[in-house]
Amino acid sequence: MRKNFGSNPLTYPQPVFIIAAYDENEIPNAMNATWGGISEMHEISICISPGHKTTANILKNRAFTVSMAEAGHVAACDYVGIVSGNKVTDKFARAGFHATRSEFVDAPLIDELSVAVECKLIDYNPDTCILRGEIINVSVDERVLDADGKVDVSKVVPIIFDPFNNDYLKVGEKAGNAFSDGKALK
Questions:
Q1: How far apart are CA 86 and CA 67, in angstroms?
Q2: Which of 33, 68, 89, 106 sits at 20 to 30 Å (Cα–Cα) from 173?
Q3: Whole-angstrom Cα distance, residue 37 to residue 96?
Q4: pLDDT tens digit string along 77-118?
């Protein structure tokens, strides 16, 4: 037996992206967005409405960063999603975030979040709310690297959004080997 939930945006996983851009005064702003992902080899697509301060900032600067939200900063990551930059001009600072300017794009990296995708704006469609960015660089704070220089997800502790229950869930437990476990069924 299955329960029907109708036509709704209910999927797993939904990454929790923290999108950051500078405003007209070079003040960093950030927002939380969960409707997005990789759409091409060097492209990320995110659904954000035109009324967001972050959207205006991205359109102005044609650049942005997308950080992965982390369990250790869940309150700050949630805060930037429930407070509007149009009303709270210092919400980045109130969240406890600190910025370092990306060396690749004109956008802030959030020091507290260890994994970031640095993007140049490809385009934005206000009718569909789809923002597409060219991935210029992915930067990772060394604090989450293992001895071999690989990202240790147990140090990052990224979170996903559970749209069925409005919860954030930790990511990190290995479930299998990609491009390998399925070979047993060949």
A1: 21
A2: 33
A3: 26
A4: 999 999 999 999 899 999 999 999 999 999 999 999 999 999
